User: Fold these one by one.
Assistant:
Number 1:
Amino acid sequence: MTTSAPPEIVIPATPSSQDVLCRLFPGVRSPPSLLAPGRVPNSGPEATAALLKALRDNHERSHVFFNEFSFHNHTVHHLLAIYALALPTRATHLDHLRVAFVAPDKVTITDDNFTDYLGNDQYYNAYLDYFHRVKYIFSPHYNVRTPQQGAEQPQMFNRLLEILIHPIIHVGYGAEFGILGLIAEGLAWTSVHPAGATTLITRLIFTPTRTTPITDLERQEPGWMPKPGSRLRALNILSLMLRDPRFGSKVLDKHEYAAMLESHGEVINKYGEMWDCHIESQEDLEERVEELIWVATLMYGVGSWNGNEAEYCADFFTAHIVTSVLFIPSICAYLSHPSQTKLLRAHFLTSITWWLVRGRSSFALKEFTSQPLPPLPNIPSAKYSNTLPGSQPTLPACALPSPASPYAINPNPWYPILADALVHPNEHLCKVQRALAHFNVLYGHREAGFVLDSLSKDGVDVDPEYAYLDGTVFLRAAWLTGSALGWVSHGEDNTGIWNYQEFHKAALDQLELLRSQGRA
């Protein structure tokens, strides 16, 4: 994590005028795409009024990072997710957040000095003011400039998917709900992010001509690799990466991650280039978005599973691949086909990179999809029950299909899954469950084997596990996630068990030390 101490003298940011706030936060609009998630009916206008007040307060008062270790301010993401799931009005607390402050020397960001302060979070509010005006993040001007224009490249597209893809999630909420203020915040957030973990994106999207020598690792390419220029479906690319001996299966720590980008960057990029993604129509977009959603769900939902009797390792990092891909349709609704292509390719490249960092889990789909599906009872030796905790209701004899049927007691498992996410204190749970529920709406009808015909056209060996991929994976992953984090709405404690492993350990240990010293 990046450490950034605030200025010695903190000057609170100047509040925006009411005219500006009304323009940036005018209200909540309907989703801009049929592929974007719908909304659950709420209790009335009070919920929307409370949401807008909280969003405006956050915009005016809060920094994008809530501490000096670049830990993200997730308040807006949590509020919008539970608003979309129809939680009635409730008080929101912003007092734990880092205050928004004026940039050092009261710098104003302009087109001329735009690149001078990129990656420095002390200039967040200066960039926020800049992005109150519309700028275009997908153009080469904001990503790669000639040497005559300065050695520091803007790399805004990189930054958009940096540090667990958070900026694009923030921009995505703005696009989905039609709130310009959130888009401005997301772009300002993008500007103060580093451009380290995703530098591969600039190489893939904006500088496709190779300028570096072939590495020893590239010379070790397996003989079964597709010929140069091949274009494959995303799931076939994952299969090839699982076979590739040049990648390990160890979860990497922070320093190993940086080293992997250095040593394996060109190899990863080659896999990113293989994806057959060139958007020229709405049909193209819908097909490629579906590919990304299956990729994300496999990486998190199935990749976190180690068998029915083992603890579900709900991976915190691949979970962000799930929550970020939810917003691709909303953002794409405002983009041209060429920019849609760039965005989807960048997201795929970022996804496979994080999957490698997290140990490139395989996808045991045959076993995963053979387990009893909630609400049917699980086997006695299973780690998690398919029955909600607590006493079960006694139903009258007229209940359908019968009073003792699991389908009468819990007719639709998605209802308790989403209800629990609304009241669960973990701010990431509601976002994951909302995404998986929407994916189930879109693709829950897919039957086992549906993907085999298209995969077989690529001319590579198709992983036999894909024969078992079907639309139940979304519900299975959501139920396991809810079970792992605790059914708070049914009396269980919040376990807070996301699988971080070692990646954040150093930053968390340092933060705990500062807290013990009264410095954080």
Number 2:
Amino acid sequence: MAGLLDNKIVVISGVGPALGTTLARRCAQAGADLVLAARTVERLDDVAKQITDTGRRAVAVGTDITDDDQVNNLVEASLAAYGRVDVLINNAFRVPSMKPLANTTFQHIRDAIELTVLGALRLTQGFTPALAESNG
């Protein structure tokens, strides 16, 4: 039976211990080969091994999506590994402060916006040419 993502190349940002790892496993189960991105490289290597142990391919690329150069490196590494990108999953995010607004610093809000909003835009911009080329 063919999987929904058979032979698709999927890039996932924010591959952390919870949702990102689950997304990676599910995409691999659906037939995808993966590019895994997050700031914590050790965790990425562990998830990549879990994926390759299932028979799918996975490349781990340490990436801080708030940094233009690192996002460009992620795009280049993805294309170097597979030659194309079919799907981008923007999963990197910062949990907002649970403090009352009066006790939340503007820096915390700036950091959350930089990662969650601008980081997703940065990734989308970076991968748009590759996604357009593959009709992703």
